[in-house]
Amino acid sequence: MLPNCDIISQDDFFKPESEVETDERGFKLYDVLDALYMDEMVKSIRNWMKSPASSGVVTEEPQNPCNNLKNTEDVYILIVEGFLLYNYKPLNELWNRRYFLTLPYEECKRRRSTRVYQPADTPGYFDGHVWPMYLKYKNELEENAINVVYLDGTKSQEELLSCVYSDIIQELKKLREGNQEVTA
């Protein structure tokens, strides 16, 4: 959909299970920054920024490129996806755009229950760790007044994609002449 677009996923930077802390209830603490090699993630992003055309990260091939994207051959887009991106200070200076999916408790728990994790969630993990951490990090975002676009995660994937895509297209129009990168 977007030309010259690469993706870096925060999930690729999880530490091995043996290095993830366990709390007093026996829950592995995966939903905290210490469960991730965040320095390595920042390094990967900075390496991409130095040489986006030869980055070696996952590249999205344009499927039906839009006419309003003409003359963007020298504009590169990096989409960084993850759940703790905006709570890590070294990353905050890198973002052109920030999007945060919000979900009500019931829907989040339902979706989580349909996913397969390795290792699997232990009983009570969602209520005892995942949901409280989601609320904690969401509150930190709101308190810090970081420029974030909050997206209603109950909307369809198509609606969410359309919203983000439109926003990125607007940003590309602004950057078209500058040969710059967009990180979202």
Structure description:
The protein is α/β, with parallel strands linked by helices. Helices cover 36% and strands 14% of the residues. It has helices at residues 38-50, 89-92, 105-114, 125-144, 157-175; strands spanning 5-9, 58-60, 76-81, 99-102, 149-152, 181-183. The longest helix is centred in the C-terminal third of the chain and has 20 residues, at 125-144. Mean pLDDT is 84; it is low at 59-69.
List keywords for this structure.
alpha/beta, globular, 5 helices, single chain, 184 residues, 4-stranded mixed sheet, two-stranded parallel ribbon
The general outline is: globular
What structural class do helix, strand and pairing data support? alpha/beta
Beta percentage is 5-15%
List segments where confidence is low: pLDDT < 50 over at least 5 consecutive residues.
59-69
User: Nearest-angstrom radius of gyration?
Assistant: 18 Å
Helix fraction by DSSP (H/I, runs of at least 4) = 25-40%
Number of strand elements: 6
Distance between the termini: 15 Å
Largest beta sheet: strand ordering: 2-1-3-6
Mean pLDDT: 84
Helical run tally: 5
Order of helices and strands: EHEEHEHHEHE
The main sheet comes to: 4 strands, mixed
